[in-house]
């Protein structure tokens, strides 16, 4: 088997399938393993128990999938075209800000399908081929692996950065037993002395360069955290109801980012610029219908209302918002009732001051 020629073909097939870049790395992540264990020991993962559940398998691909000797990493741009400017949405406290990666179809479905297609292409030339595809769906150190395969470098905000594509992209992997040639060494970092992402984080979750305390991160608070959002952090969330893009929005490298050409990532239902009270008025049936095939569906209706209630509490005082909150003051969910009560207290203070 001419593995050099096969590696070239894999990259050609990957680009034809819509990936902007494809790289190949080995499975040695010793340095990453040490950093992960330190991060877990500090409790920075919060309630994300899955980060610790599989132990060091996250950093040892050959233990997760026996026989793995190479990882094929892919990168796909996701920033949707023709969306409302993010800063303009966040500056209007009556609107809802949703992280731009979640405005279209669930990326897990899109990337997994393309990765399986890439694996099928490989199988046409290699019959004895074992593999497994991943896209943020298993204990995989995707940023470390992508960095090793020269798809970019880990930025100070902990996301992967590329000089040609910034950070508005998804990552996916194929674990394989094929001894393909490597794309090492890893690309050096180009963050330099820049501290833009640290300074911009609304909750100061980036506690040091390359170190994130997820417990303070708005993406964690609005997506991963299932219970009550800590009181001191609620005012800092603003109108971000699903995720947060601030660290990416201020990153100088995103001047070079490309908008996605994937129809699946086009914003749906006008969610790039929609009013908070409109979303708060959705019943559960509407929520499930609107978000069928969306990554947002995974947080569930109760958490969705919790997030919007916090945003309404942070919104400029108005009778419309107060009325919307009062309509859910007796919600069946204790979690929703708690956050609505907090938001009503904030709104009544705003209205009282205005009067």
Instruction: Give the number of DSSP strands.
Output: 11
- Determine the fraction of residues in helical runs and give it as a percent range: 40-55%
What's the multimeric state? Answer: single chain
Output the radius of gyration: 22 Å
**Content of β-strand:** 5-15%
Q: Structural class, please?
A: alpha+beta
Largest beta-sheet details: 4 strands, antiparallel
Number of helices: 16
Look at the structure and give the mean pLDDT.
95
Low-confidence runs of at least 5 consecutive residues: none
Give the SSE string. Answer: HEHHHEHEHEHEEEHEEHHEHEHHHHH
Shape assignment: elongated
Strand numbers in spatial order across the main sheet: 1-2-7-4
Task: Please describe what this structure looks like.
The protein is of the alpha+beta class. Among the domains are: 3-83 and 101-176, no CATH class; 276-355, Leucine-rich Repeat Variant (Alpha Horseshoe), CATH 1.25.10. The chain is built from 16 helices and eleven strands. The N and C termini lie far apart (79 Å).
Q: How is the secondary structure organized here?
A:
Blueprint: H1 3-16, E1 21-25, H2 30-41, H3 50-53, H4 61-64, E2 70-77, H5 86-91, E3 95-98, H6 107-125, E4 131-134, H7 142-148, E5 153-154, E6 160-161, E7 169-176, H8 196-200, E8 206-208, E9 211-212, H9 218-224, H10 234-237, E10 240-242, H11 246-249, E11 274-275, H12 276-280, H13 284-290, H14 300-314, H15 319-326, H16 334-354
Parallel strand pairs: 3-10
Antiparallel strand pairs: 1-2, 2-7, 3-11, 4-7, 5-6, 8-9
Helix pairs in contact: 1-6, 14-16, 15-16
Domain 4Fe-4S ferredoxin-type: 182-211
Cofactor: cob(II)alamin; [4Fe-4S] cluster
EC number: 1.17.99.6
């Amino acid at each position: 088997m001419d593995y050099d020629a096969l590696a070239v073909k894999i990259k050609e097939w990957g680009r034809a399938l819509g990936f902007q870049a494809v790289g190949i790395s080995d499975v040695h992540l010793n340095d990453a393993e040490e950093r992960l264990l330190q991060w877990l020991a500090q409790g920075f993962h919060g309630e994300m128990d899955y980060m610790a559940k599989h132990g060091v398998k996250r950093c040892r691909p050959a233990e997760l999938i026996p026989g793995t000797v190479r990882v094929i990493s892919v990168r796909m741009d996701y920033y949707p075209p023709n969306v409302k400017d993010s800063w303009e949405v966040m500056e209007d406290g009556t609107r809802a800000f949703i992280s731009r990666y979640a405005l279209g179809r669930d990326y897990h479905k899109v990337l997994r399908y393309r990765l399986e297609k890439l694996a099928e292409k490989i199988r046409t030339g290699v019959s004895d081929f074992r593999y497994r595809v991943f896209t943020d769906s298993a204990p995989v150190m995707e940023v470390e692996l992508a960095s090793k395969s020269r798809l970019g470098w880990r930025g100070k905000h902990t996301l992967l950065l590329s000089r040609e594509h910034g950070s508005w992209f998804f990552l996916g992997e194929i674990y394989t037993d094929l001894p393909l040639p490597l794309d090492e060494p890893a690309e050096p970092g180009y963050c330099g002395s820049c501290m833009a992402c640290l300074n911009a984080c609304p909750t100061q979750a980036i506690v040091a360069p390359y170190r994130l305390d997820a417990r303070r991160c708005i993406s964690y608070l609005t997506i991963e955290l299932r219970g009550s959002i800590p009181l001191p952090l609620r005012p800092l969330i603003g109108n971000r109801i699903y995720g947060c893009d601030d660290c990416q929005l201020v990153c100088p490298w995103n001047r070079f980012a490309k908008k996605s050409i994937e129809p699946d990532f086009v914003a749906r239902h006008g969610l790039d610029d929609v009013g908070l009270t409109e979303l708060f008025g959705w019943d559960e049936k509407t929520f499930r219908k609107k978000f069928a095939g969306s990554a947002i569906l995974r947080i569930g209706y109760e958490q969705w209302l919790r997030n919007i209630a916090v945003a309404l509490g942070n919104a400029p005082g108005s009778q419309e918002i107060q009325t919307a909150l009062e309509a859910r003051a007796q919600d069946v969910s204790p979690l929703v009732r708690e956050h609505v009560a907090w938001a009503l207290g904030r709104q009544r203070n705003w209205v009282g001051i205005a009067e």
